[in-house]
Amino acid sequence: MQEAKARLSELIKSAESQGPQCITHHGQAVAVVVSRKMFERLTANEHSLVEFMRRSPLYGAEDITFERETGLTRESSI
Q: What domains does the chain contain, in order, with CATH numbers?
């Protein structure tokens, strides 16, 4: 992390030219620096969840059945 602070401009340039850059603290990965272009691609939300579901090949299918547990309680796996 100290090196990332000291060389921030180089870190950003590397993220732009080489891809995501991992930052570690005491040997453990704690953060990743990505280019703005990659960030926008990863976070782009062109469609809502409803639109996504409506584009499913199963949308409108009437022959799909879901089995449901009819009991009042379920066992927890926790």
A: 2-54 (3.40.1620.10)
